[in-house]
Amino acid sequence: MRARIVRWAVLAVAVPLAATGLKKVADVVEARRGPQSRAARGLRAIGSAVRPDRRR
Protein backbone atom coordinates (compact mmCIF):
# COMPACT_ATOMS: atom_id res chain seq x y z
CA MET A 1 0.00 0.00 0.00
CA ARG A 2 2.82 2.40 0.83
CA ALA A 3 4.46 1.81 -2.55
CA ARG A 4 1.27 2.87 -4.30
CA ILE A 5 1.09 6.08 -2.32
CA VAL A 6 4.72 6.87 -3.09
CA ARG A 7 4.17 6.10 -6.78
CA TRP A 8 1.09 8.33 -6.85
CA ALA A 9 2.97 11.17 -5.15
CA VAL A 10 5.88 10.94 -7.59
CA LEU A 11 3.55 10.93 -10.59
CA ALA A 12 1.52 13.81 -9.17
CA VAL A 13 4.68 15.90 -9.30
CA ALA A 14 6.45 14.42 -12.34
CA VAL A 15 3.63 14.62 -14.89
CA PRO A 16 2.97 18.37 -14.55
CA LEU A 17 6.71 19.08 -14.56
CA ALA A 18 7.18 17.00 -17.69
CA ALA A 19 4.30 18.76 -19.45
CA THR A 20 5.68 22.17 -18.53
CA GLY A 21 9.14 21.14 -19.72
CA LEU A 22 7.80 19.92 -23.06
CA LYS A 23 5.94 23.19 -23.61
CA LYS A 24 9.09 25.20 -22.84
CA VAL A 25 11.14 23.09 -25.24
CA ALA A 26 8.41 23.63 -27.85
CA ASP A 27 8.75 27.40 -27.34
CA VAL A 28 12.50 27.21 -27.96
CA VAL A 29 12.08 25.04 -31.06
CA GLU A 30 9.34 27.35 -32.33
CA ALA A 31 11.60 30.38 -31.90
CA ARG A 32 14.37 28.72 -33.91
CA ARG A 33 12.43 26.90 -36.61
CA GLY A 34 9.15 28.77 -36.82
CA PRO A 35 5.65 28.11 -35.53
CA GLN A 36 4.75 25.59 -38.21
CA SER A 37 7.66 23.23 -37.65
CA ARG A 38 6.72 19.62 -37.11
CA ALA A 39 8.87 19.35 -33.98
CA ALA A 40 7.29 22.38 -32.29
CA ARG A 41 3.77 21.25 -33.09
CA GLY A 42 4.48 17.71 -31.88
CA LEU A 43 6.05 18.81 -28.60
CA ARG A 44 3.21 21.23 -27.92
CA ALA A 45 0.61 18.56 -28.71
CA ILE A 46 2.24 16.04 -26.37
CA GLY A 47 2.57 18.65 -23.62
CA SER A 48 -1.07 19.61 -23.98
CA ALA A 49 -2.22 15.99 -24.03
CA VAL A 50 -0.34 15.27 -20.82
CA ARG A 51 -1.67 18.36 -19.08
CA PRO A 52 -4.19 20.53 -20.91
CA ASP A 53 -4.38 24.27 -20.19
CA ARG A 54 -7.09 25.11 -17.71
CA ARG A 55 -8.12 28.52 -18.91
CA ARG A 56 -11.58 29.81 -18.31
Gist?
By secondary structure, the chain is mostly helical. The protein has helices spanning 2-33, 38-50.
Helical fraction equals: over 70%
Number of domains: 1
Q: Roughly how many Å is the radius of gyration?
A: 14 Å
Global morphology: elongated
Cα distance spanning the termini: 37 Å
Largest sheet: none
Overall structural class, as computed from helix and strand content, comes to: mainly alpha
Given as residue ranges, the uncertain stretches (5+ residues, pLDDT < 50) are none
- DSSP strand tally: 0
The helix tally amounts to 2
Mean pLDDT: 86
Portion of residues in beta strands equals: under 5%
SSE order in H/E notation? Answer: HH
Signal peptide: 1-18
Region (Disordered): 33-56
Keywords: Signal
List keywords for this structure.
single chain, 80% helix, mainly alpha
Task: Describe the protein.
The chain has 56 residues and is mainly α. It has one domain. Helix content is 80%, strand content 0%. The termini are far apart. 9% of the residues are buried. The mean pLDDT is 86.
Secondary-structure map with pairings?
Layout: H1 2-33, H2 38-50
